[in-house]
Amino acid sequence: MKFPQLKIGHMTPEFPIMQGGMGVGISLSGLASAVANAGGIGIISGTGISIEELRQHIRKARASIKGEGYIGVNVLFAMNDFAEKMKTAIEEKVDFIISGAGISRDMYNWGKESGTPVISIVSSARLAKMSERLGASAVVVEGNEAGGHLGTERPLFDILPEVVEAVKIPVIAAGGILTGGDIAHAIRVGASGVQMGTRFVASHECDAPLSFKEKYVHATQEDIVMVKTTVGLEGRAIKNNFTEQISDNKKVKIKKCIDCLKNCSYRFCTLDSLVTSMEGDCENGLVFAGARVHEINEILPVQTIIHNIKREFKACV
């Protein structure tokens, strides 16, 4: 049995697999173009990079795609540069824009005016219905198993049926999706496709440094911790020196605040901690990861990861 055809706006990828947008610097042009070339949908994270860097990565990804491939940009509503980043992505004619950490009526209007599909990341049927009403082309429903900031305490497969029932637009399942078997399960429940982040971090083409990928490969189930970040949400990360420093609501001195968030507790700098990991120091920065990161034991090419997923999917249907 073949994968079902995912259709979002003009996009009809070979595989109904969207790669998660992971910042800072984890999913840029390298990973996004590799996933697009392998038949999925690639996403560049706009978090923590400049407007010019975002523009360059969009152009680099486009130049790296052989034949037809789809590239989008993830912009976080919680960031102060949200509007500027979204407008830049539209100017560069990306295939779509995906946004989480809040909903803005403006972003749907901008998408409609430019003919750019806008996808919302949601964690409830209520938010999914609101997104559809405002003009979302699809929704990504993210369960508690996801890496990074979490919008819910509920597992994906508790929320997914409710969202599928609530909306008529495509529903993409995310959070804890690692194998072809997981995709088969999501599709049986009614999802049109899946979003996968953690599995693609441990790939040769991922833009993260090798030290970051090795944290994934060597992580055990006991290494996974929940941290309270400065945006007021819990996040899932891999235990290291930094998670110990911020445990029990302890503060870490901020070297230089660039006022990147609309709302921040200033207990430490989330952005700086992510940049530290991106620069290779994965003991003194945040290393976000999904709940099943301990199941990953090798770094593979993106093409091989998707080939393995395809084989696992076929075995389940």
From TrEMBL:
Record-linked InterPro entries: Aldolase_TIM, NMO
Question: Which Gene3D superfamilies does the UniProt entry name for this protein?
Answer: Aldolase class I
Query: What top-level branch of life does the organism fall under?
Result: Bacteria
Q: Does the keyword Flavoprotein apply?
A: yes
GO terms for molecular function, please?
nitronate monooxygenase activity
Q: Which CDD domains match?
A: NPD_like
Specify whether Oxidoreductase is a keyword of the entry: yes
Q: Which Pfam families match?
A: NMO
Q: What does the UniProt keyword field contain?
A: Flavoprotein, FMN, Oxidoreductase
In UniProt terms, what function does this protein have?
Nitronate monooxygenase that uses molecular oxygen to catalyze the oxidative denitrification of alkyl nitronates. Acts on propionate 3-nitronate (P3N), the presumed physiological substrate. Probably functions in the detoxification of P3N, a metabolic poison produced by plants and fungi as a defense mechanism.
Task: Kindly provide the name given to this protein in its UniProt entry.
Answer: Probable nitronate monooxygenase
